[in-house]
Amino acid sequence: MRKLFISALLAAVATASAQTADFFKPYAATDLRLPSVPLIVNDPYFSVWSPYDKLTDGTTRHWTNDEKPILGLLRVDGTTYRFMGAQQEYILSSIAPMADEEAWEGKVTNDKQSGEGWTKPSFDDSSWKTEKAAWGTEGDNIRTRWGRTGSDIYIRRDVSLSDFDLQEDLYLRYSHDDVFELYVNGTKVADTGETWVNGVVLHLDGDLKKLLHSGSNTIAAHCHNTTGGAYADFGLFKNIKPKGQDIRVAEQKSVDVLATNTYYTFACGPVELDLVFTAPMLIDDYDLISMPINYVSYQVRATDGRRHDVQVYFSANPLQAVNKDTQATVTTMGSEEGVRYVRTGTVEQPILAKTGDGICIDWGYFYIPAINGQVMMGAPSDIEGAFIQSGKIFPQQSREGRGQGGRAAQGGRPGAGWGRGIVARKAADMPTLAYTHDFGQVETASSFMMMGYDEIEDIEYFYHRYKGYWAHGGSVTLLQAFKSMQSRYASIMNRCRQFDKMIYDDGMKAGGKQYAEILSGSYRHVMAAHKLFEDKDGNLLFFSKENNSNGCVNTVDLTYPEAPLFLAYNPELQKAMMTSIFDYSLSGRWTKPFAAHDLGTYPRANGQVYGGDMPLEEAGNMITLAATICMLDGNTSYVEKYFDVMTTWADYLVENGLHPANQLCTDDFAGHWAGNCNLALKAIMGIAGYAEIARMMGKDDAYRTYNAKAREMAQAWEKETKVKDHYELAYGAGADTWSQKYNMVWDKLWKTGIIPAGAMQTELKYYLKKQNKYGLPLDVRKDYTKSDWIMWTAAMTDTDKDFQAFVEPLYRYVNETTSRVPISDWHDTKTGRMVGFKARSVIGGYWMKVLADKMK
Q1: 3-state SS class at 563
Q2: Looking at the predicted structure, is the pLDDT value of residue 325 above 80?
């Protein structure tokens, strides 16, 4: 086996002249339409995506779908073009506020209502209870408990409107979990089906607005809780956004996504704009992996051979730094070491206080430096209007520290050069943080800007708090990092370009163009689901967040499926995911005879929180990965201190692995299943992996014992599960059942011959007959699949034709799905829609074929 030394490869290119590098042209044009395009990404919190075909189709968002707006404008000869983000349609101010502003009261019943008579203004609700909003099981602003499984709630709210109110631009806003119906004066205006969403906005224009009248109006809602959490709240708002000047929409000509770079080109009148978003997360550079700073490079090119007056503009707002848009924020401008910055964050700064899944960070600060341009903060209409009118971002009569809806206040002071800030109590009052670069009269010109986020403290690990690796224990500040990233821009961009080439070329060689594009579009997705840091003992730690599944930190059954990417290019990062799990057992904190499932809920890793263990799953995962690391390293130095721990786990696999009890496995959403045949294979390969480690350590007796046991179990497995032309889902489940046996793949990579000859090809031949339009189902029970496991299964093939037969439906899914989220790894193979999960690191499993080729 050969190891890939990326550093040597990239160092060779770093010597190339920056002037010869074309940073604005992708190494390869890509055809794959990602469901959501990575823009500014670094970790589970600093993560901004565009879930649209065009960058101008809507507001940029966090993977949770919360808005994280970034606006981009280009001014050419006095005409302004929008090339990024949505033009803000509204700034809402409450007429009938929701519960985040006021504990409003409604008339409520939980008795089933027939028909729609209860929604009309004339309905007699005097027998209904009067209760305070919001209603639900848990969460912010709940003042009335409601929500047992299968229950209903009916709410009536009286809203008095004047003739003046009716002249306003009106919107309904509502949050719900689960099924929700909303009525205005007896007419249904919203019917959600079974979903759960916060802050949905409905514009009351045209006929909808005619439903309202001067005087008393009834807004009524029905919510049904199918299962789990429940929530209901709604309100009426007016749009207070001032009428703006005309802005044209730039014509998007192309978008290409490679491993570290996203490339766009736009036509803006007589000028074309090239835009590159770079997250320089080079897999062997720990400073850059963890650095919470991204580049945005921009180039203008005249298409008519003439010089044009050109200015570029980017802006963001405090939504970058909040979990809820009702949190108070402070936006500040100041200088450090000759560089001017704008920054924003919450007033509260609850550092590491919140844990959970679908949440955004609400501590630390978002920054834009005036490197290569100028920065300003203030009212959105003032700043944007000044740029449209003059190409400047300094509105007349503006004063630093003042803005629409804000008040002068002392913000956090990172240094003496920082001034007073704008405090905003709600989203409608939030200021803009703006950057502009005036090229003047040019035919062709280029530059770059940066955006960054300082989390202050990034993660807690057994009650010690740490910053990301890049800060080196606090000796490097983010403002110093900005200056370093500025000085190294050309070198880093060259290295990123070469890294993009390597990822693409390896994919092309392993599986063709579609596979290369899938890998290129997935790299930042995987990397940005982690936090890299070093603990007090000097251990490198690389913790995933279980995005959109339960929010656990460093979950072992994420570490396992995502492993191929890291095993292929940097096993040290794979170790950095495993060390803490080993140490958890070695320290005595975890005492069970199998590996822990997780270390807590992100960002606090203080011990397992998952309610149900996965004994065979996690023990098999850890030993299998440890064995592969030893093979790649060519020695056992990493695992030797943990050998006794692994012996305990291996013995558990021997005792319990052939016929699994009613245990959960990594595919826990499918439920328990006694006798799971694929789980038995995991145990068998875990035992075989332990034997290989023992052999490499010179423990020949242990090798012979455990290797023989693995072979004996594999023979028994084959004999007991073979049904006609394939292997069943579970022992005794019958010939009509089947499942993906992706855990077999290690026998091919290790060349151990543990799995009986022909078993892999028998299964693969059967799978090819079971594929649907958007891929191979996980098993016979449902049409859904896990795309990471498809690519593990595909790596067991022996021919390019068979491998591509699995890749093509996956490519089609990514390219066509209507679920516009960072790739969902759990999707329906017939509809192509997301079933659950998004933005998870498990799609590092897509690299299994690359890993298999490197281990030949």
Answers
A1: helix
A2: yes
Q: Strand, helix or coil at 678?
A: helix
Q: Which helix (H) or strand (E) holds 505?
A: helix 489-511
- Phi/psi at 47 (nearest 5 deg)? -155, 105
Please report how the helices 800-816 and 787-794 are oriented relative to each other, as an axis angle in degrees rounded to 10. Answer: 160
Q: Identify the helix (H) or strand (E) that includes residue 466.
A: strand 464-466
The residues near 812 (Cβ < 8 Å, ≥ 6 apart) are 773, 774, 832
DSSP 93: E
> What is the sign, positive or negative, of the torsion defined by CA atoms of 587, 588, 594, 600?
negative
Q: 206-259, pLDDT tens digit by residue? A: 899 999 999 999 999 999 999 888 999 999 999 887 665 678 999 999 999 999
Does 100 score more than 90 pLDDT?
A: no
More confident residue, 397 or 183: 183
pLDDT of 265-309, one tens digit each? Answer: 999 999 999 999 999 999 999 999 999 999 999 999 999 999 999
Residue 779 gets the label, from left (phi > 0), alpha (psi -120 to 50) or beta, of beta
Could you tell me which of 310, 292, 309, 259 has the C-alpha nearest to residue 83?
Answer: 310
pLDDT at 8: 41
* Cα(476)–Cα(493) distance, integer angstroms: 22
CA distances for 396 relative to 249, 399, 420, angstroms: 26, 9, 19
Angle at Cα 85 formed by Cα 207 and Cα 439, nearest 5°? 135
Element (H, E) at 419: strand 418-424
How many angstroms separate the Cα of 208 from the Cα of each of 169, 233, 592, 785? 12, 20, 60, 41
E-only strand ranges, 168-245: 170-177, 179-184, 187-191, 196-204, 215-224, 231-239
* pLDDT for the residue 398: 40
- As a whole-number percent, the residues of the chain with pLDDT over 90 amount to 85
Q: Which of 586, 590, 636, 644 is nearest to 613 (CA)?
A: 590
What is the identity of the amino acid at 673? W
Q: pLDDT, tens digit, for every residue of 572-582?
A: 999 999 999 99
Read off the pLDDT band of 427 (50, 70, 90).
Answer: confident
* Residue reference for tokens 């064995």: 627
- Spatial neighbors of 310 by CB under 8 A, at least 6 apart, are 74, 75, 76, 271, 300, 439, 440, 442, 445
Bridge-based pairing state of the strands 834-836 and 248-249: unpaired
In this structure, which long-range contacts are made by residues 470-475, counting pairs with CB atoms below 8 Å and at least 24 apart in sequence? 470/286, 470/287, 470/288, 470/290, 470/291, 470/292, 473/534
Do residues 87 and 384 make contact, with C-beta atoms less than 8 angstroms apart?
no
pTM equals 0.85
Residue 729 corresponds to which tokens in the numbers above? 């889902």
pLDDT at 154: 98
Q: How far is 565 from 577, CA to CA, in rounded Å?
A: 13
Identity of the residue numbered 256: D
Provide the percentage of residues in the chain whose pLDDT is more than 70.
93
Distance between CA 410 and CA 265 in Å, rounded? 41
pLDDT in tens, 767-789: 999 999 999 999 999 999 999 99
